[in-house]
Every structure is written in C-alpha cells, then in structure tokens.
C-alpha cells in the first residue's frame, strides 16, 4: 500500500497523566492526591492481591512526587511533541491542584493559571489538548474524610470542580474525558476511586454503589460541559480488554460473555444512558441494590459524544480458570493465552485484539471512537548514538507498527476513529508499579528507580519513526 487509510484530519499524539509526570506535588498550592501515598504503585498485579501498600503520608521513595518535572519543563517537552508533529496531546488536570482538599468552595488560582500556561503553549504549536478530568488523582482528603467515591458527596465536589475548569478553559480545550478507565474502580478501588476501605472489607454492594456515583458524576459533567460550550466533545474512557475462550466448550464461551459484560457495563451506560438488563440480573443474584437519588435517572440520560479507551492486552477466559495458568500482569484477571507473547511485565501482546475492540465498540454504539492509550512498557537501555545518547528501541517500533496496521484494518472495516495517542510519549512513572524502568516513551528521561538522574531528555530511535508516521499520516506503516 502507498496510500494511507487514515482520515486527513486524524489526530495523532501521545497521552500522559498529571500524577505520573508533573511532579511539583506541593508547589503552586497543590494538595495531596491518593497517588502521593502509593509509593509502590496502585494496581494489584493479580486478581487475588489485596490493596497495594498505602502510606499515611508521602514518602521519599515515591517517584511520582517529582515525576519527570513537567511542571517546570513543560515548554521543553511540548516543543519535543511539536517536533514529532503531534496534532493532539492528552493530559490530565490534577484535581488537587484546583481544589487542594477537594471540598473547598473556592478554587486555587495558581493551579488554574498553570494549566492556562500549558494550554497556551500547546496552542502555540497548533496541538489540541485532550483533557482527562480525573485520572487516578482523587484528592487524598476526599479519600480519607469521605471514603472517596463510595460516598455520594463526591458527586457535588466533582461537579464544582468540573464547572470550574469547563468555565475557565471553555475557549482553550475542546476534547474532554470524564474519568480515566472508569471500569478499573472494581479492580483498584483506592487508586481509581479513592476508596479507603481495604479491598478485603469491600462488598460488591459497596463497589457497585461507588460505580453508580461515578457514572452519575460523569453524566452530570457531560451535561454541564454541553451547557457551558455546546462545541465541547466529551467522552468516556474505559479500559478495553477483549476476551477469548480457551476452548470451544460453550461454558467457556459463556465465561467470555460474562467477563465482557462487566466491561461493557460502563460504556453501555455512558453511551445509552441507562443500566442494561444483563447487569440487573447480576445485581439480583448477588443481592446488590443500587441506591438511586430521584434525579439520577435523568442525569444518566446525558450521553457522551464519543467512546475512548486504553488498549494494552487481551485476556483468555474459561469456566474453570483453575485448570490454567493465571494471566500474570493482566490487571483484570483471566488466564494465559498460549498463542501470545508477553511484555517484560507479563502483559500479553495482541495487535489483532485492537482491531476487534474497535469493531466491537463501533458496531455496538455507532459513536466515534478515540484510542487514548496504547504502548509498550520496556526496560530501555541508553546508549551512545551518532547524535548523542539514544535508545535503540526497535521492539517498541515493532509493537506500535503492528498495532497501527490493525487500526488501519479497522478503518477499512468502516470504523469511525478520531485519533490515536500512544501512552507515555515521554518516559514517566508507572501507575501500576511506580517504577521509572517501565518505560513507554519516544523520549528517554534520565531518571531511575532509585530517584537518581539529571532529568535530561534524549530522543529514542522511535522518536523519528513516530515523526514519520505522523508526517505521512500513517502511509509509512505499510
């Protein structure tokens, strides 16, 4: 092929989260977030694990406190993104920069001014911001004093926050996401939902009631955003994970369907505005009774403009999972797929799964889609190159090329896709493990797991590769 299948207005870029790369965790009036007390990461590595280690106060071994210092280096980093040709840059606003405790009546002006500067710098290069309102960054006070999203009071606090940022940036930001990987609250309740109750003490009733509060808040944000600026494009963001049956046994097929439904629940409600019938049966059989406020049904009817998602891996499912090896590293469980290779962290690599996800979501909702996370975490080694230090990351190029070819296949299938942002265009601190050595970027950052390093930035081999992909609008993939 010599002609690209990507639309002329396709949004190429990269994605980040404030808590993993901003640093400056108490500068500019910022308060603490749940991430500041998760020095070992916030995601259980298997379904049977308990909560990750949560400290009372921030500790020196938490790399996220300094991140990669984007707070002070944003002009340098945005210039590098512009050099690659980014059309869009996904970032999150740290809720605790705007409302340090989360329940204040008035916002922190210094925090608002910081994001003004970032958005203005992006505009200088013609890069569209794609902003996540809540990316695993619940203010710590809301977790400690209210038990996070288990408490309905958070809807009002979130509403005040989103009204503030929507109004402030209504002429600077067009694309918004309400919650990052909203379905992850079932698997990482403290990191994702600020729920301080230990995992072993949480009932399904507690978790799904918290889910309901987040879904209502998300729909309310969509309504508010459209009221403030009808041109806003507001989407949900889910963790996409296609599942395959281990055998042709109908019971394995049923296990796949049940797993998929627990993921579809979140996008179904965001896209259709109501709870689907399959979850009502699950609630009944598990004695779960979701408490609805009188206004909740109407609020949920405010549906999103597009569906966005992260995609890193697929899983395999069986009705008897104990008969197989568990899927090490798969955040949402499952068993090992013998047909797939895995990353250094046990995440199974499945480019075709991305095409399946795109088709499944588009066939199900007929809404535009946006891939807002996809990438390979690897142990990069800095070496001397002809133009200075670099990383020969052909493995990353291979991973991304294979996934993007499958994106092209989905476009030819008829899927409407607005854009693609790789996870971590610049190395940042891992959310799941709080390591620097789990690197995703096109740009190497000289910082290490022990906290040492100069923070200097170096272009990897993949930097020029992605630059060429964007410049050719995907034609160089073929």
In words, what does this structure look like?
- There is one protein chain.
- The protein is α/β, with parallel strands linked by helices.
- The chain has a single domain, classed as Glycosidases (TIM Barrel), CATH 3.20.20.80.
- It is 37% helix and 14% strand.
- The chain is built from 14 helices and 14 strands.
- The strands form 4 sheets. It has an 8-stranded parallel beta barrel with strand order 1-2-3-4-5-7-9-12, surrounded by 4 helices.
- A hairpin with a 2-residue loop joins β10 and β11.
- The longest helix has 25 residues.
- The radius of gyration is 21 Å and the shape is globular.
- The mean pLDDT is 95.
Task: Please give the structural blueprint.
Blueprint (H helix, E strand, L loop, with lengths): L10 E5 L2 H4 L48 H15 L3 E5 L2 H4 L10 H16 L3 E7 L5 H7 L6 H16 L6 E5 L9 H5 L10 H25 L4 E8 L2 E3 L4 H23 L4 H9 L10 H5 L5 E6 L3 E3 L33 H15 L3 E5 L9 E3 L2 E3 L3 H20 L3 E7 L19 E3 L11 E3 L1 H11 L7
Parallel strand pairs: 1-2, 1-12, 2-3, 3-4, 4-5, 5-7, 6-8, 7-9, 9-12
Antiparallel strand pairs: 10-11, 13-14
Helix pairs in contact: 2-4, 6-8, 12-13
């Amino acid at each position: 092929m010599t002609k690209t299948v990507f639309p002329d207005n396709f949004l190429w870029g990269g994605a980040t989260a404030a808590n993993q790369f901003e640093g400056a965790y108490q500068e500019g009036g910022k308060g603490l977030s749940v991430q500041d007390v998760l020095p070992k990461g916030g995601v259980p590595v298997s379904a049977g694990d308990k909560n990750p280690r949560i400290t009372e106060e921030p500790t020196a071994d938490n790399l996220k406190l300094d991140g990669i210092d984007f707070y002070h280096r944003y002009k340098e980093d945005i210039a590098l993104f512009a050099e690659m040709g980014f059309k869009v840059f996904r970032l999150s606003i740290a809720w605790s920069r705007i409302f340090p405790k989360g329940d204040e009546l008035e916002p922190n002006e210094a925090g608002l001014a910081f994001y003004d500067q970032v958005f203005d710098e992006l505009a200088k290069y013609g890069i569209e911001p794609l902003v996540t309102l809540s990316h695993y960054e619940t203010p710590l006070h809301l977790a400690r004093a209210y038990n996070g999203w288990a408490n309905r009071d958070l809807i009002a606090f979130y509403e005040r926050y989103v009204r503030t940022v929507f109004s402030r940036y209504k002429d600077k930001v067009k694309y918004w996401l309400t919650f990052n990987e909203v379905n992850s609250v079932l698997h990482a309740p403290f990191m994702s939902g600020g729920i301080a109750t230990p995992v072993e003490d949480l009932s399904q009733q507690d978790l799904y009631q918290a889910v309901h509060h987040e879904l209502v808040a998300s729909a309310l944000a969509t309504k508010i955003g459209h009221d403030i600026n009808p041109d806003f494009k507001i989407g949900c963001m889910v963790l996409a994970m296609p599942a395959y049956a281990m055998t042709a046994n109908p019971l394995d097929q049923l296990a796949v369907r049940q797993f998929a439904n627990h993921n579809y629940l979140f996008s179904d409600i965001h896209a259709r505005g109501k709870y689907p019938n399959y979850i009502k049966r699950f609630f009944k059989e598990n004695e779960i009774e979701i408490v609805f406020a009188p206004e909740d049904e109407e609020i949920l009817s405010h549906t999103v403009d597009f569906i966005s998602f992260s995609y890193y891996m697929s899983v395999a499912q069986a009705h008897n999972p104990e008969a197989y090896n568990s899927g090490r590293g798969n955040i949402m469980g499952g068993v090992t797929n013998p047909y797939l290779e895995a990353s250094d962290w046990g995440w199974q690599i499945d480019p075709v799964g991305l095409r399946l996800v795109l088709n499944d979501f588009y066939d199900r909702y007929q809404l535009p889609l946006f891939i807002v996370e996809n990438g390979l975490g690897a142990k990069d080694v800095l070496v001397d190159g002809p133009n200075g230090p670099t990383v020969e990351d052909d493995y990353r190029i291979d991973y991304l090329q294979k996934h993007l070819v499958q994106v092209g296949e989905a476009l030819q299938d008829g899927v409407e896709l607005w854009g693609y942002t790789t996870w971590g265009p610049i190395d940042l601190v891992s959310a799941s493990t709080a390591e620097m050595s789990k690197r995703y970027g096109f740009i190497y950052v000289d910082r290490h797991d022990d906290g040492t390093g100069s923070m200097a930035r170096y272009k990897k081999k993949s930097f020029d590769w992605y630059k060429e992909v964007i410049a050719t609008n995907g034609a160089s993939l073929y």
